[in-house]
């Protein structure tokens, strides 16, 4: 099958970019021929091994194909970006015009059997308008639903096109319900298929702990919506010995706040920046506890990656996390109750100390398990992670492709 992959932002190591890379690689393993269209920053280079020469079209922002920074699906991205809610009418027209032209040319040149787009947002709506005759499968990563809530006028203008998608992939059941409610898409055309993890990068080893200090790890964007400032403040409440590793990047005042709070802990916090899958897996195997204090996520696959490496999990009580860890465990997974949220990804200021206290308590319990020699439950790790290898997930994606083609 010839599959045209579409992503409106760069296909890198994070989030939907990581997802697209895996879709292409797993598809090739199954005999599919990929073509990629990606919106990228001016200086971004698509990995050379991802697609064959001639099977790639990039739309460069930053004054090249488009005159403004790449549009982020989240309002805070780990690089300079344009916030969706700040787009002018002229920028929206410019964006749609360029994507229409590039997608249309690719459809003619490549003649795909199916289009697989990412995000229920502008690029997908354009793809439906450009090629109404082709089967279209779209994966919702969650951040697009947030934009529908924040940018009502723009979101409403896209709904008619989005309702024409042949198959929508939701990452978990609550997300499916949100898609149906927000966009009015027929629930019979929404498949629930989670993302996965790369078992070649993320796996456990039998090494014994080599330190009396408990190693904590966070990986993701450095901003407030991910809860990083509250995590760093909560550590002031913990007397047991710990070190924290921060992996990821951010931008603007949000990043600066995170780095300032990290620096206040001295050498107990190490800031690593962005790491490749291989290096992140190696770091996870050296850590005891992975913590995700986020207020909003789609499906946090990083939790699977960390657990596959043997980490205990401390995470806020997110819908996606509950979907992954439907089978509870008294020592491997601790869910932290979210405070009241003023917006979809920000708590009320008055409740910030409440979250700090809840995070600190959960971390203290997990740190105590480590210090008392409670070993990771290998059987539980296997049961939770085994269904989520990319190879198994892609078989379900492939079935969605086939349904989209057959229903035509």
Automatic annotation (TrEMBL):
Residues 14-195 form the Glycosyltransferase subfamily 4-like N-terminal domain. It comes from the Bacteria. Keywords: Transferase. The keyword Mitochondrion does not apply. One of its GO terms (molecular function) is glycosyltransferase activity. This is Glycosyl transferase group 1. It comes from Desulfomicrobium baculatum (strain DSM 4028 / VKM B-1378 / X) (Desulfovibrio baculatus).
């Amino acid at each position: 099958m010839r599959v045209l992959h579409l992503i409106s932002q760069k296909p890198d190591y994070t989030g939907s970019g990581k997802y697209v890379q895996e879709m292409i690689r797993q598809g090739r393993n199954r005999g599919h021929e990929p073509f990629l269209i990606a919106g990228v920053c001016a200086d971004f280079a698509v990995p050379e091994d991802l697609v064959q020469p001639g099977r790639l079209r990039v739309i460069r922002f930053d004054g090249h194909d488009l005159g403004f920074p790449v549009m982020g699906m989240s309002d805070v991205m780990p690089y300079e970006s344009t916030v969706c809610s700040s787009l002018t009418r002229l920028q929206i027209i410019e964006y749609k015009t360029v994507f229409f032209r590039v997608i249309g040319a690719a459809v003619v040149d490549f003649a795909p059997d199916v289009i697989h787009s990412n995000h229920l947002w502008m690029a997908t709506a354009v793809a439906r308008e450009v090629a109404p005759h082709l089967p279209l499968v779209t994966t919702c990563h969650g951040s697009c639903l947030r934009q529908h809530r924040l940018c009502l006028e723009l979101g409403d203008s896209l709904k008619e096109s989005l309702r024409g998608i042949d198959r929508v992939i939701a990452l978990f059941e609550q997300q499916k319900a949100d898609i149906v409610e927000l966009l009015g898409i027929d629930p019979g055309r929404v498949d629930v298929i989670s993302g996965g993890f790369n078992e070649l990068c993320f796996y456990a080893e039998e090494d014994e702990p080599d330190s009396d200090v408990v190693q904590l790890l966070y990986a993701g964007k450095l901003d407030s919506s991910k809860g990083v400032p509250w995590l760093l403040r909560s550590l002031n409440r913990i007397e047991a010995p710990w070190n924290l590793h921060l992996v990821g990047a951010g931008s603007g005042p949000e990043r600066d706040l995170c780095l300032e709070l990290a620096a206040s802990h001295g050498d107990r916090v190490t800031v690593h920046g962005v790491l490749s899958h291989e290096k992140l897996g190696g770091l996870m195997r050296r850590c005891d506890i992975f913590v995700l204090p986020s207020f909003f996520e789609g499906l946090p696959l990083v939790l699977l990656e960390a657990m596959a490496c043997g980490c205990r999990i401390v995470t806020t009580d997110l819908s996606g996390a509950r979907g992954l860890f439907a089978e509870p465990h008294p020592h491997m997974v601790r869910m932290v109750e979210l405070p009241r949220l003023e917006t979809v990804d920000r708590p009320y200021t008055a409740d910030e100390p409440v979250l700090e206290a809840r995070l600190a308590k959960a971390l203290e319990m997990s740190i105590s398990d480590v210090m008392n020699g409670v070993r990771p439950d290998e059987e539980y790790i296997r049961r939770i992670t085994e269904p989520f290898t990319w190879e198994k997930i892609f078989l379900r994606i492939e079935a969605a492709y086939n349904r989209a083609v057959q229903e035509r």
